[in-house]
Amino acid sequence: MIGHVLTVESCFDLSETEKKGSIQASGNIKLVLQESLKLAKINAFKFLNEEQKQKLQNSAIHMHFTEGATPKDGPSAGTAITTALLSLVMNVVVPSNLGMTGEISLNGQVCKIGGLQQKLIAAKTLDIVDIILPYANLGEALNLPQQLIKGLNLYFVTDYRQIYELIFEQQIANNNYTINKIKNGVYETDQNGTKEQIQSTINY
């Protein structure tokens, strides 16, 4: 009933200068997670300026998934890998109390994940307050116990651009997107900078 939080680390590998533009990974990752690395690189590239693109193309990058003794597979780390890669290349620190889960597609769509309740419990045990989730999991989240949701800020997104705006531009919504949220048990939606409170409680 309790999940685990996967920490994603990234750095420029100055010892692998002959492998420019490559991303190496460690941490006992399996095939599907390796595919997520490729998708993350493609999606991250879309948000970089020309200087940052050159930096990505001319650098060897290493990404590590902690707890190497545990095999890791599945696509739900896609958004986190993309964010870790952007954080490194853009030199922007991601807050330590921020978590996310979601499969990412080739065109940046954030897809549904399984085990939502277990993942939220795991995040809460590590005092992770802000969590970005696929919009496709909103219905499931609305039926979770209030005791679990209390104290968490959940953001539901359909496209990675929304995650980019939340983290790297520090804005919740713009003219093109609506952000659905559950903040401390209250379901809200932000659209065009305005906030609408939809219901006062989720589920007791």
How is this structure best described in words?
The strands form three sheets. This protein has a six-stranded mixed β-sheet, covered by helices on one side. The protein is α/β, with parallel strands linked by helices. It has helices at residues 31-45, 50-57, 78-90, 116-125, 138-142, 146-149, 160-168; strands at 8-12, 23-26, 61-65, 98-100, 103-104, 110-111, 130-134, 153-157, 178-183, 186-191, 194-199. The chain has one domain: 2-Layer Sandwich (Ribosomal Protein S5, domain 2), CATH 3.30.230.10. It is built from seven helices and eleven strands. Strand 5 and strand 6 form a beta hairpin. The radius of gyration is 17 Å and the shape is globular. Residues 197-204 have low confidence and may be disordered. The active site is at 76, 119. It holds the Pfam family Lon_C. This is Lon proteolytic domain-containing protein. Belongs to the peptidase S16 family.
Largest sheet: 6 strands, mixed
> Which structural category do the helix and sheet elements fall into?
alpha/beta
Net shape: globular
Tally the beta strands: 11
CATH topology-level name = Ribosomal Protein S5, domain 2
Q: Would you identify the regions where 5 or more consecutive residues have pLDDT less than 50?
A: 197-204
Q: Name the strands of the widest sheet in spatial order.
A: 4-7-8-9-10-11
Name given to the CATH architecture: 2-Layer Sandwich
Total discrete domains:
1
Overall pLDDT level: 84
Radius of gyration: 17 Å
In angstroms, what separates the terminal alpha carbons?
Answer: 19 Å
Helix content: 25-40%
Order of helices and strands: EEHHEHEEEHEHHEHEEE
Strand content: 15-25%
How many helical stretches?
A: 7
